[in-house]
Amino acid sequence: EDQVTQSPEALRLQEGESSSLNCSYTVSGLRGLFWYRQDPGKGPEFLFTLYSAGEEKEKERLKATLTKKESFLHITAPKPEDSATYLCAVNEGGYNKLIFGAGTRLAVHP
Amino acid sequence: DADVTQTPRNRITKTGKRIMLECSQTKGHDRMYWYRQDPGLGLRLIYYSFDVKDINKGEISDGYSVSRQAQAKFSLSLESAIPNQTALYFCATTDRATGELFFGEGSRLTVL
What we know:
The structure holds 2 protein chains of 2 kinds. Chain A is 0% helix and 58% strand. Chain A is mainly β.
């Protein structure tokens, strides 16, 4: 069965304390791995898409990487405004049916 | 204006009532989705539609139905709401080329 598992469930960081979020997946034929950010009471907002092992993408303090079994979202020198839930999803079967992980709740304190 | 608009944003109803959640989009995409979000469970796919004449069940379609009235409109119905359908519901559209989903702001439904 296709699965997406995110860890940790929750992460508390001090401002400036870099860390990584993990997304491990088991799907037959990955057609894209997506990272989204979700603020409370809002819909998820797109961050990155990764398609093949070894691929990396960056946006401000965020960097996403992909291997054959997992993806990492690295957060460098986070700020309080980076606090949100980060969702990982994989595209199953090429029909744009995304399977989501449960998310990691990130809290960055001043 | 938001590209994907959901109404209502919040709704409280009673067990057994019929509820409709509506979604409209201005992205021009042909593919639309309804997801449900519960704490600790992430987003789960209820129904999806690739065009007006194409409707498909997702992983948790029992107790729900949908209607694709036009390319830009996709509604979700609960024929007889029950308390375990209390959740946050999201409509989304997708860019077929990239697979990126664009989400609405969500509809919070509470069934008493």
